[in-house]
């Protein structure tokens, strides 16, 4: 091989070098064209109103690209998609199509291997394929307008256009607005600003830019409503609302009368209920005003509605019945009425009176710092007890039986400043009590004032104990001739202030004698169960209980001082000898 032969270039290598050089030059040309297209597009987008050049008043004319003498100009061939002349529209698939009304510009490069087209707007930012000789068969996508279609116009994939005022329809009605005559090679910009959404719902013809490609409709489009802007949610349908029915005008009302009466009746002055007016029905609470007096004659029946009470508010209530003609307080229906209540400085007298069916709130009678006198009267079939606070009590020949006591004893009298309690020839029993509650309890809460007692001739059956005294101070008086029978215990004295006399005698001048104490339930201890010995009396201080009957002539049972006694037992603080060897004659019949 000659040196000339060695220097001659290889044809294949020469063709590859020429191809690479042409590809590089073409890329430079495309970059210059892209910069020019970007500048024109920015001018088009930021020019206020109309087409480019309208604001400056410069007529729009077709621009031609002056070829650079440094690079060869390759003439497009018919198979590569030549530029159509005005009046020769091309279809999107290439070639001449008279039925297609708008041109579809192609990208003339002169080299089939470098033939590129604009990418659709959804491919912005995608790196184009490599421009190498092996890519000559890549056809490229069909050119699409980068601007998204406006409402009412079909997209690149076709569809039926929506007619707009001033826009030619399928039959050619109207004259289309002028089209831009600038024929440019569309290059996808690196960043496309979002379209500006116009707030008016109706698009004006002068403000709507024309699409670059609209396919020929195949059917006559039907008129449709203008859709809402894409960035705004469609308005909810308007639901017709019936007008409200006319409201009738209120009829003129009468002049309001006097205010309603108070929720209770008031007894003022001196009032007397006679037998001729019986029965007297009390539908609302009754108040005896301060300084007033209500007298109820013998034979009068007072019927109280459910829950109704009688309040003695510093006045006087005198129920003056006679033997065979009692005054009766009963319920008007089967339901319980409340009770009789006395406020401070009241005075209540019940003589030959029957109280039945009261005690709705657990108390059938309650008085405070007042005076109560009960003679030959009866409390039965009630749902509550008798509670007295600092009230002087005198109860004789009366009966408290057959009642339900939800709490506390059947009769409880409590004093904090000393007073007088007289219970003579009364009967307490047959009452249903709470566990451990006594039948009768009298309490002295004062540590220095004396409570005077006269508890004589009473039959007290049941309770634990039957009769209970509680004191913090001195007690004075007599507890005699009473029959304390049944249940867990007979008599009990309790105190929170132990009292000791220096001479060794009981500290209180209280005589407890001639009482009948028997028939109590023995505790669960063998000796008590064997002989039936119950608890007769207990005391927390030294107490004188001599001359009482304990149920046996052998006296009360005391484990150390009298172990042979077969009567009810006594506590260690009780002086019991001598005892009675026979029941006393003054006690009431059992």
Number of helices: 3
* Count of domains: 3
Strand share of the residues?
15-25%
The biggest beta sheet, please? 12 strands, parallel
Which strand order do you get reading across the main beta sheet?
1-4-7-10-13-16-19-22-25-28-31-33
Approximate shape: elongated
Structural class: mainly beta
Helical percentage: under 10%
Low-confidence stretches: 1-20, 50-186, 203-209, 223-232
Average per-residue pLDDT, rounded, comes to 74
Counted beta strands = 34
Q: Tell me the distance between the termini.
A: 163 Å
Radius of gyration using CA atoms only: 61 Å
Architecture overview:
With 590 residues, this protein is mainly beta. The protein has helices at 3-7, 11-46, 526-531; strands at 264-267, 270-273, 280-282, 285-288, 293-296, 301-304, 309-312, 316-320, 327-331, 339-342, 347-351, 353-356, 363-368, 371-375, 378-380, 385-389, 392-396, 399-401, 411-415, 420-424, 427-429, 440-444, 451-456, 459-461, 467-471, 475-480, 483-485, 489-495, 510-513, 516-518, 535-539, 543-544, 569-570, 574-575. The longest helix is centred in the N-terminal third of the chain and has 36 residues, at 11-46. A twelve-stranded parallel β-sheet has the order 1-4-7-10-13-16-19-22-25-28-31-33, with no helix packed on it. It has a ten-stranded parallel β-sheet with strand order 2-5-8-11-14-17-20-23-26-29, with no helix packed on it.
């Amino acid at each position: 091989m000659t040196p000339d032969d060695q220097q001659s270039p290889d044809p294949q290598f020469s063709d590859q070098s020429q191809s690479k050089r042409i590809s590089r030059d073409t890329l430079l040309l495309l970059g210059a064209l892209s910069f020019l297209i970007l500048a024109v597009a920015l001018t088009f987008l930021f020019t206020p109103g109309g087409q480019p050049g309208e604001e400056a008043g410069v007529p729009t004319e077709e621009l031609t690209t002056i070829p650079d003498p440094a690079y060869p100009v390759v003439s497009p061939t018919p198979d590569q998609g030549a530029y159509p002349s005005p009046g020769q529209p091309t279809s999107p698939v290439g070639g001449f199509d008279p039925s297609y009304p708008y041109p579809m510009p192609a990208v003339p490069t002169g080299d089939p291997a470098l033939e590129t087209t604009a990418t659709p707007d959804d491919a912005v930012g995608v790196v184009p394929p490599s421009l190498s000789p092996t890519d000559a068969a890549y056809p490229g996508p069909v050119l699409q307008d980068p601007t998204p279609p406006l409402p009412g116009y079909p997209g690149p994939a076709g569809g039926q256009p929506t007619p707009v005022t001033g826009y030619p329809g399928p039959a050619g009605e109207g004259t289309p607005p002028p089209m831009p005559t600038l024929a440019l090679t569309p290059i996808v910009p690196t960043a496309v600003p979002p379209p500006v959404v116009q707030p008016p719902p109706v698009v004006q013809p002068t403000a709507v830019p024309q699409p670059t490609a609209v396919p020929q409709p195949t059917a006559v489009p039907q008129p449709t409503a203008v859709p809402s802007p894409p960035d705004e949610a469609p308005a909810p349908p308007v639901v017709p609302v019936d007008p409200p029915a006319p409201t009738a005008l209120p009829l003129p009302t009468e002049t309001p009368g006097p205010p309603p009466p108070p929720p209770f009746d008031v007894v003022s002055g001196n009032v007397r209920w006679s037998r001729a007016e019986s029965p007297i029905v009390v539908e609302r609470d009754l108040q005896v005003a301060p300084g007033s007096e209500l007298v109820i004659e013998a034979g009068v029946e007072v019927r109280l509605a459910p829950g109704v009470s009688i309040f003695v508010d510093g006045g006087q209530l005198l129920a003056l019945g006679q033997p065979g003609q009692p005054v009766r307080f009963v319920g008007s229906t089967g339901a319980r009425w409340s009770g009789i209540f006395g406020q401070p400085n009241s005075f209540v007298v019940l003589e030959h009176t029957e109280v039945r069916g009261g005690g709705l709130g657990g108390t059938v009678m309650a008085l405070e710092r007042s005076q109560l006198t009960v003679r030959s009267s009866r409390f039965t079939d009630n749902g509550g007890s008798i509670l007295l606070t600092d009230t002087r009590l005198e109860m004789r020949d009366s009966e408290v039986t057959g009642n339900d006591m939800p709490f506390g004893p059947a009769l409880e009298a409590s004093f904090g400043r000393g007073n007088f309690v007289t219970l003579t020839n009364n009967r307490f029993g047959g009452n249903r009590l709470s566990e451990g509650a006594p039948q009768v309890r009298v309490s002295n809460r004062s540590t220095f004032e004396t409570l005077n007692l006269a508890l004589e001739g009473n039959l007290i059956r049941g309770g634990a104990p039957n009769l209970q005294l509680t004191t913090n101070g001195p007690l004075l008086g007599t507890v005699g001739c009473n029959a304390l029978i049944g249940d867990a215990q007979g008599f009990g004295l309790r105190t929170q202030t132990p009292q000791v006399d220096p001479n060794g005698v009981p500290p209180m001048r209280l005589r407890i004698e001639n009482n009948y104490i028997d028939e109590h339930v023995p505790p669960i201890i063998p000796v008590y169960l064997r002989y039936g010995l119950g608890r007769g009396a207990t005391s927390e201080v030294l107490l004188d209980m001599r001359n009482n009957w304990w149920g046996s002539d052998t006296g009360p049972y005391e484990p150390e001082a009298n172990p042979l006694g077969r009567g009810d037992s006594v506590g260690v603080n009780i002086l019991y000898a001598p005892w009675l060897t026979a029941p006393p004659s003054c006690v009431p019949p059992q």
